[in-house]
Design goal:
Blueprint (H helix, E strand, L loop, with lengths): L10 H5 L4 H4 L19 H9 L5 E5 L2 H7 L6 E5 L13 E7 L5 H7 E12 L5 H7 L8 H8 L4 E14 L1 H9 L15 E13 L4
Parallel strand pairs: 1-2, 3-4
Antiparallel strand pairs: 4-6, 5-6
């Protein structure tokens, strides 16, 4: 989520996950494929690698320009162009942890790529996220059952913890426009009349652990 607007959550909230560095063994992936459409420019991956000095990371995105930028995000980062829904071009059990920030999730392939006991860190919007903006411009709502649907998508996975991020941000009109355009609302319409405003940031960072057979 990097088009000039605010990031959905503070990168330290994601990189300080209690499961991240503990699960990243030396010279293996600290935060491998964050998802086919979500690694972006590698912003969160770079912060995670700073937190885990012995690890290496891999970013995955369907966008070639984003993947090129992600490859330069950190000295220990690489990137690939891939679609999460089609499956990630990685061998089984190669990843110690996956970071998925506002990105598509493929539970079957994530389970394949993660080693047993590996961590999945998911940042997703809470129902009140950008509430005022949604109300003003008629944007798509966040489902009230989003947390339940995440758990249902990963049956048998342990929830190691959840961090709630709640704050406000003052945005310029251009930042508001970028924020709307970078999300699913862009497939519908971007309002013509946009003004500077204060928005609510409401994000839940969930730490899941892949079952050990």
């Amino acid at each position: 989520m990097e088009k000039g607007g605010p990031t959905p959550t503070d990168p330290t909230t994601v990189s300080r996950s209690p499961t991240l560095c503990r699960r990243a063994t030396p010279r293996r992936s600290a935060a491998p494929p964050p998802g086919g459409g979500g690694a972006g420019t590698g912003f969160y991956l770079a912060h995670a690698l700073e937190r885990c000095p012995e690890a290496e990371g891999l970013a995955s995105d369907v966008s070639v320009p984003a993947a090129k930028r992600a490859a330069r995000a950190h000295p220990r980062a690489a990137s690939i162009v891939a679609d999460t829904w089609a499956g990630l071009p990685l061998i089984d059990g190669v990843a110690d942890a996956i970071i998925c920030v506002f990105a598509p999730r493929n539970p079957t392939d994530f389970a394949r790529v993660l080693r047993p006991g590996g961590g999945l860190i998911v940042a997703q919007p809470a129902p009140e996220h950008l509430g005022r903006l949604r109300s003003t411009h008629g944007l798509l709502a966040v489902g009230e059952d989003k947390a339940e649907r995440l758990g249902a998508a990963f049956p048998g996975w342990e929830t190691a913890g959840t961090t709630r991020v709640r704050r406000t941000a003052s945005l310029t009109a251009d930042e508001v426009r970028d924020l709307i355009a970078m999300g699913p609302n862009a497939f519908h319409r971007v309002p013509a009349e946009i003004a500077a405003t204060e928005v609510e940031i409401a994000v839940d960072v969930v730490h899941l652990v892949r079952p050990v057979p």
